[in-house]
Amino acid sequence: MWAARYASAAWDLPLGDVGPDVVNDRASRAQHEIDVMALGAGGRRGDVHAPIAMLGEAKSTNDLRTTSVLARLERIRAVLLARGLDAGSALLVLFSRAGFTADLVTAAAERDEVRLVDLDVLYDAAR
């Protein structure tokens, strides 16, 4: 997984365990599948005290990723915060093969905690 292997160096972000997860949202009676949940340095899966360093959505689609995906990640972060988990500083990362809409690029440029990862970023980090 790119996040586990390259995100630490690319963003100077020490990470612990990285992988997919499911977040239960009791308020909306929903479950949110998350493609990338990374804990802070040394954090291990199941440790409720470990800070959440990254929440990410990765889809291999021909569709451009939109601000609705960012809103979904924000919702998931809010659910985690409401449960008392340390997710307030988590990066919100959108991975895309096809790219991003102009409004999402603008939103990401205005926010330090949002990262957009396209194929160029993926391959540049691996070099």
Describe the fold and architecture.
- The chain has 127 residues and is an alpha/beta fold.
- Helix content is 33%, strand content 31%.
- It has a 5-stranded mixed sheet.
- The longest helix is centred in the middle third of the chain and has 16 residues, at 67-82.
- It is globular, with a radius of gyration of 14 Å.
Q: What's the layout of helices and strands?
A:
Blueprint: H1 2-11, E1 15-25, E2 30-40, E3 52-59, H2 67-82, E4 91-96, H3 102-109, E5 114-117, H4 119-126
Parallel strand pairs: 3-4, 4-5
Antiparallel strand pairs: 1-2, 2-3
**Mean pLDDT score:** 93
Please state the second-level CATH architecture.
Answer: 3-Layer(aba) Sandwich
Strand content: 25-35%
Which structural class do you get from the secondary structure elements? alpha/beta
- The CATH C-level name is Alpha Beta
Could you tell me the number of beta strands?
Answer: 5
**What is the CA-based Rg, rounded?**
14 Å
Q: Spell out the helices and strands N to C.
A: HEEEHEHEH
How many structural domains can be distinguished in the coordinates?
1
Q: List segments where confidence is low: pLDDT < 50 over at least 5 consecutive residues.
A: none
N-C termini distance: 15 Å
Number of helices: 4
CATH topology assignment? Trna Endonuclease, Chain: A, domain 1
- Helix amount: 25-40%
Largest sheet: 5 strands, mixed
Shape: globular
Strand order, biggest sheet?
Answer: 1-2-3-4-5
Quick synopsis:
By secondary structure, this protein is of the alpha/beta class. The chain has a single domain, classed as Trna Endonuclease, Chain: A, domain 1.
